[in-house]
Protein 1
Amino acid sequence: GAGVSQSPRYKVAKRGQDVALRCDPISGHVSLFWYQQALGQGPEFLTYFQNEAQLDKSGLPSDRFFAERPEGSVSTLKIQRTQQEDSAVYLCASSPLQSSYNSPLHFGNGTRLTVT
Amino acid sequence: RKEVEQDPGPFNVPEGATVAFNCTYSNSASQSFFWYRQDCRKEPKLLMSVYSSGNEDGRFTAQLNRASQYISLLIRDSKLSDSATYLCVVRSYNNNDMRFGAGTRLTVKP
């Protein structure tokens, strides 16, 4: 079946531009996560949704970052007024069951954002 | 202090060697534990879950010590194809999110 799909695969933005990154999770997956991964680092948690509810946004680095999942499926991560330090790979992952703590994450192949 | 900390690495080992990675976590409410593998410029993929009693999957053995808040991964008889970054992942009971360590890079050489 289809895995987690992210688009665009690559994005180059000029400093100050707004960007929107899209994630299509595996159909039926309740949980959706966004991570930011800088070069040579592990993924850093940004935010977590259970269906359409954003249960944790403690990892969003500033108020320039905003995420939504209005219908409980597709999610968009928006970054306003991009800065060079926003350059990273943004990974989306989904997980099937909200109450199964052993459910692993299924990752998309990420969006590589470069801010020039 | 990061919530999940790993051996900094890198580890460079010959084929056939045994190598062990360690990971500690700070949140005592952590509920589930995993090892993920990430190849260069690829997304992380689940290697194995870590169970309380320890578990083995072929050449890979994972151990959990809840009292010490410590997880390990042992790879026996290393193969060239084991070269990757290994990420320790911890999921907490109270907020359900999953936190990653910075990863330990392994290079297996012929």
Protein 2
Amino acid sequence: DQQVKQNSPSLSVQEGRISILNCDYTNSMFDYFLWYKKYPAEGPTFLISISSIKDKNEDGRFTVFLNKSAKHLSLHIVPSQPGDSAVYFCALGSARQLTFGSGTQLTVLP
Amino acid sequence: DAGVIQSPRHEVTEMGQEVTLRCKPISGHDYLFWYRQTMMRGLELLIYFNNNVPIDDSGMPEDRFSAKMPNASFSTLKIQPSEPRDSAVYFCASSFAFQGNYEQYFGPGTRLTVT
């Protein structure tokens, strides 16, 4: 029973364009929603988060949107840069635990 | 700060051998998590501790896996006996109670290969 789904295993985007990564969930119990970035041979690193009481949070080139009625979370990166190429995981938080999606490999083409 | 430290970074062992993975959390953090990442199952939580006490071990796959946290600065994950299907990357992460958004800080991982 997958509570968190990232349906796109991979995404390719041209440098300078917008990257949109998506995450769907089934359970309404989560109260924080996070995005992590992972480079090969490294641990995941935190990128941005949003509380369940908000619908948007912005940090520089990164914006996270939360649509609670649709149980949908998205991460927008604009403009995309080659250094953004990595695997992106959504992670949903409840009672201090995080449940991770399967990840999306983003490739930003120069 | 040094971040979360894991050792070894790579471990290759034969089936049936005992494997011990080690983790040093960030100083002052009171939560410690062990995860396993595989292609099939993604990043899954195995067990987590709060103030050195195991809180939830429902993710531990079977009795061959055990974890301890003897003090606030050290934890181990042991597999005995190891099997080829245990091959994966094992991550340790830590966080502190006042981290409102539940952010966890991950170590670099231990890549385990069981032949």
